[in-house]
Each structure stands twice: as structure tokens, then as C-alpha cells.
Fold this protein.
Amino acid sequence: MEESAAAPDRGHSIVYAPRIQDLLAREEKVFRIDATTVGVSHCDLIADVVAARPVRSAERSVYKPAAGADIPHDSATRTIRALGKDVMEGIRTPPPPARGLNGPWPYAATSYLRQWLFASDPLPVSLLSKRGITRSPALSRIVDRAVTVWPEPGGAGHGRTALAEQIRSASDARERGQAIAMYRRATATLCDGVAALTGNALWLMGPAGREQLMGRAGRKQLMDSAGREHDVAGADLTAVLWETLRLLPPAWMLYRTGGDAYAGLHPDIRREDNVALFPLLMHRHPDYWSEPMDFRPERWTGVPDPEKTPAFMPFGFDGARCWAKHLVVPLAERLLTVALDNRLAVRVPNQETHVPLRSLLSVRFDARSGA
Ligand code: HEM
């Protein structure tokens, strides 16, 4: 059984996987993790590492090579534009019944988002990113093959997402193979990431915070002195999400394989060392934040561009900034609104939730809608 260690977060206990807990206990901002890996949570050094060289194609997640070749830049940008169109369309569409949010989080939320945004895609395209399938390489290969022969290339587009249209309109076998891979990776990254962020926010808000915003999450209520109406609760939720991205950032660790580019940046980093960058640690360091362990959404109120805040990089730094960041927060806000409007209850035994060691940092709990 996995050992665990508890750490308090605003009155709740989060039981982090032991390796994350070890990292959280580190006070130094540059430290050795093992014989070939150096950990960094120093703000300037992280910025230097990110800027030292572009991310290699094999280090990328969504745009790592597929179908035996690098993803060309223009098809990468087309994919992001298509995803943006599908997300904006989804945000405008009524959500599926809230009972879809019941069950273990973040998985229930991942399936719910997939249902909401991509259910219009016919089989087998919609199976590409289904959890039960992506977990099995054999099933993934079968679905890939089915999508490769479907739909008829050049056939009429009907009721499918812009992302699926990228597959249909591919001009040759390689482009089609890459479009299939990017559909799978983009939908999975989006649904997993937004589910993790929203779940982390629901947890950090606690019962009192959730109660405060329940039922008024989507309402526009106040007028300012000039008579303009303001979506007050909406603004609150945005601040809740930025504060969640600080305290429990889904992208908690960024990794770079070693080489000359980093060796000169710090005496502890050698040529052969890989570098692990930790937004999770930087976002909690008392040198950078006042009352760093407190969940205080108010700290973001009136901040026009949170990403310009020093020592804050939930979506990366200049040089490798997330291409989808403008989609993630609005979609998470929409999902959080649905959860609150439907009085989603968060259940965990003994008010203790677990954060396992995964590439995305997400708390685990069971949810029931109470509407
Ligand atoms: C909650 C969701 C997400 C979070 C928290 C997130 C966070 C990040 C972070 C921290 C980086 C910097 C990585 C590094 O420097 O190593 C990054 C880069 C990137 N992200 Fe995201 N991301 C999310 C969703 C997505 C989605 C849905 C897509 C596209 C489908 C996407 C596409 C990218 C791309 C293209 C990069 C640039 C890295 C590269 O050059 O390959 N992200 N993201």
C-alpha cells in the first residue's frame, strides 16, 4: 500500500503521494532529486531554464511527433483554432444533465466534459479519447484503425466538431494519422486538465465557500456607479480559479532533459542533469507570496493579467507558454458554475482527500449533485 503524509490546506487535509510530500518539505529553491535530476523552484532560474532553449519536439505533450513525423507548425495552430471553436461552442450550449457529475472526481468531470463538447462526433471518432480506451494501447490501435477508414475522405461534414473535421479534411495518410493523434491528445488534455482544475477548486473552496456561491454562480447582480451591470459571482469564480492555479496547479511539474543549455545557469546543474521545474513549490514559497498556504481568491481581485504576477506560472513562462490557456479558465468557470448551480456535494471520508503522483495534480473525491 502506498504510504502517505498529511498536510493541512485551509482546514482540510490533503494527503499527498509521498514523493510530492517530500518535495513540499524542501526549503531550498535548487535541490538534487537523484543522481541525474535537479529540482528548481527559484523564480528567476525557472524563467532562465524555460528561455534557455525551445522545448524539443519529443518533450512536447500535445504536439510530440505522431504518425512517424514532427507535427508541422501550421497544423498545430489549426488544431488549436479548431479546439477553441469547439470549446466556445460548448460553453454556449446547455450542459448535459448534472447527474453526469456524480461519482469519483476528476474522472466524472472528464467524462462529463467529453460528453458536453465532443458527443456530436459520430463513432468511432468520439471513442478516440474515451478513458476506457486510452488506457489500453490495443483498444486505442483498433479505434485508430477504425477512424482511419472513417469517414469517407471527402465525405460531407455533418454535426461533428471542428476538431473531427481536421481528421475528415486531412489530405493524405500521414496528415490523417496526425489529426487522429491530435484529436486524442487535445481532447484528453483539455478534459483532464479542466476536470482537475475544477475539482481542485471545489475542494479548496470548502463547504462554506461552495455554499456562498451556490445558486448565484451564473447571476449578474450588481450595477456599478456608472450603471453598468457586473457579473459579480462570475468575477468571484475567476478569482477562485486563479487562486486554485496557484495553490494546486494541475501542471505542477515541468520537465527538461539535460544538455549544454542549462549547465551554465546554476553551479548545481551539470551538463548531464535533467531539470524538473516546480510551479507547485514556487507558488507556495514565502519569499514570493504572503500567507502562501492560505486559499485567498481575493488576492486576484482587480489583477488585470494574473500571469504577469511574479513567481506564478500555471501555464508556463515565455518561451513555452500554453497555447490553450485562454480556453482552460473560461471552460473551468463554466463547469464550476454548473457544479455550484446543481449544489454538487463533495464527499470524502474524514475530510481527507488524496493527491496521487500523476502528471496532472488533482484531488480525489466523490461527488453527488443535490439539485
Ligand atoms: C488545465 C489545462 C492545462 C494546463 C494547466 C496547461 C499548462 C501548461 C503549461 C504549464 C505549459 C508549459 C509547459 C512547459 O514549459 O514545459 C503548457 C504548454 C503548452 N500547452 Fe498547455 N495546459 C493545459 C491544457 C492544454 C491544452 C488543452 C492544450 C492543447 C490542446 C495545450 C497545449 C499546450 C501547448 C501547445 C504548449 C506549449 C508547449 C509546446 O511547445 O509543446 N495545453 N501548458
